[in-house]
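Researcher: I'm comparing several assemblies side by side, and this is the next one on my list. It has 472 residues spread over two chains. Same procedure as the others: predict the full complex and return the structure.
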Amino acid sequence: MLTVMPELDSTAVIEFRDVSYCVAGTQVLSGFNLQVQRGETLVLLGRSGSGKTSTLKLINHLLVPTGGQVCVKGVSTTESDVIHLRRSIGYVIQDVGLFPHFTVERNIGLVPRIEGWAVERIRARVDELMQLVGLAPELLSRYPHQLSGGQRQRVGVARALAADPEILLMDEPFGALDPLTRDDLQREFSSLQKRLCKTVVFVTHDLREAVRLGSRIALMEAAKLVAVLPPDEFLRSNDPWAAAYVRAFGEGLEAARNRGTS
Amino acid sequence: MNVFQFIQQNQSQVLELTLEHLWLVGISTLLAALIGIPLGVAIAQRDAFSKPVLAGANIIQTIPSLALFGFLLPLPWLGTSADRLAILALTLYALLPIIRNTYTGIRGVDPAVVEAGRGMGLTDSQLLFQVQLPLALSVILSGVRTALVIAVGLATIAAAIGAGGLGEFIFRGLAMVDNRVILAGAIPAAILALLADFGVGWLEKRLRPR
């Protein structure tokens, strides 16, 4: 007879158990509990310095928790093979993460190559990904500095997807883009995610982006998680921090509008 | 008879000493690169060691070259051969620019790029050989270039302890108070320095990451 261990929720791909993280005496994260379910897009929302990026880096073990446990697929990150763990997690960061001395093709094919895939298989996978993220094949031989910001970000997404990881970590991936390009990429990412059903953790400080892309929004403030809500509930929430965030965005738009009329 | 006629008349000797000179410079710079680049990489990764190592290399650099030859003379095995002694001294002098530039080059790689690589699951050595070293290469090479040019000049002093090289002409000319003989050593040495500078500079440009 099979027994199910109660504390192991089979659908939680990533789990923070009472995690704290401090560096040089500063508490970056404390008493942090969160579960990320298979196939969902969890958005970590919060202002700069609230600990969003650190939370993300705890998942792929770029940072080591000083207390508690971060579990990925049921295994604590401190006990797993870090290299293997990272290669099974796609990682997209804002703009700068591409290797400047690699062509687009080598950048995208990096993880498959270090995983020892055959050359033809890498080639086929790269072509497939270029199409998936909407990049023309002639860009394959370009270097990152020869691309536009939007193209670079597409390459970043393609690179993260290369070895078909189950989990995708995205740290303000569209933050440095102009509003129109950002809008395009958000729409494309959203439809891509509907097809691929990855487990995504997405960091942003932009409420609009959070509402648009997230299946749940986790709001962080001063090293703590203050609310985890689906987007529609988040917008109606009575939680003071959530309400303050929504108000700030609404008022910003309102103020801009009033300036135009008065 | 002017200096060029002198060089022409002593063609074979000029050539021989030039090759000797090249050998001294080549071997010592190669040794310095073999020691200095790994050392530079090591201190770039463990910053606590960077200060003492760089300070040590700096101190060596401040020892007058003739004095350094003198200090090294009593060493066993090394002290018994002028060539070995000269190569050791030249290697020590070439270390500083190579260590320092390797350190600076590796440190200068964008931390975001390094972190992205680590986040994607590159091992430390993959990160080093595929990301950090290629991106630091032009800075490292310019250190090697500086080391080479310094070595070409310093190697002329190796003749003082009998290690040969173009310094032979210079010392002989000084003793004979004959400028032509001095220049027969100095001109080829200067040309060697320029060629080395140009050669590595060209390599640096070719290998620069775009």
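Model: For your comparison table: The interface with chain A takes residues 110, 112-113, 115-123, 126, 131, 134-135, 209-210 of chain B (CB under 8 Å).
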